[in-house]
Amino acid sequence: MKVSYFFQALFIVFLSISIGVAQNSSKEKSDHRVKSVNIQILSTQVADSGIGEWGFAALVEVDGKKILFDTGALPDTVSKNTKELNVDLSDISDVILSHNHSDHTGGLIKLRREYMKKSRTALTRAHIGKGMFWSRPLKSGGEGNDMIALQPEYKAIGGKFIEHTEAEEIMPGVWVTGSIARTYPEKNFSGLGQMKTPDGLADDNIPEELSLVVNTDQGLVVISGCGHAGIINTLEHARKTVRNAPIYAVIGGFHLFEASDETLDWTANKLKEFGTKNFMGAHCTGFEAVYRIRQHAGLDRKTCVVGAVGAGFSLDKGIDPQALAQ
What we know:
alpha/beta, eight-stranded mixed β-sheet, 17 strands, about 25% helix
């Protein structure tokens, strides 16, 4: 009888180990390669079509599946620009909110309310980083983080937030970075604000910022909202967590408009080191920053441009800057 119990216990231990191995195997990092990528800017300062604003938003289509990356600043800018560009967002469920600043989150409620009339699942999943809802107390008094008030409003109209602390694949070949490792001393934020963390008050370095990474045979395609974590930190993080591959394209805002020539030269040299083939700097990148990076990273007018509303990028054709930014 005791022998029988012994073998039963041994079987249970073996079964537990087998289940654990199966679970760990299912968590192994995927190396799925995306075949088709199309990106179109829907909000930034320069407008070849539609309305320009200090904000950022982009439509990302990967192997036929769509994601909205950021939602612009003013409530109706992206809404108006989608109509101008003949873009439909009603078939999109996933929204990436790169960080808490209102020039990236301002259109969320308006867009959800508008497109839910056509599809109840439109823009219902908002991907965010840890720290998105931490308080940012203003020196003048009051709250500096609009996401705190936006959170219950979005949930009330059917939305939910999905928090990412590390790199995660949200669809085949498409990753959110999670918290970006600050390997290099890039300080692409003011350093003047503060935030209330679980451990107390600290300088606000926008820890929740995340970017989107698409894994392709040509290399990684990276979309950034503001680059407060640093464009090079972001690309380094993507290469370490998704795949150690060349950067085929980097698109979005990189907060370099105030950077010194020395910082821009260092940034361009790192981009060249990473094998960067395409660069589209929108929003807070800065015009002069784009031109200097073009010069020092070995790029040209076809592969390094200022991003405009309506401008795009595709895996097969490269950058389409539209007329204004050629």
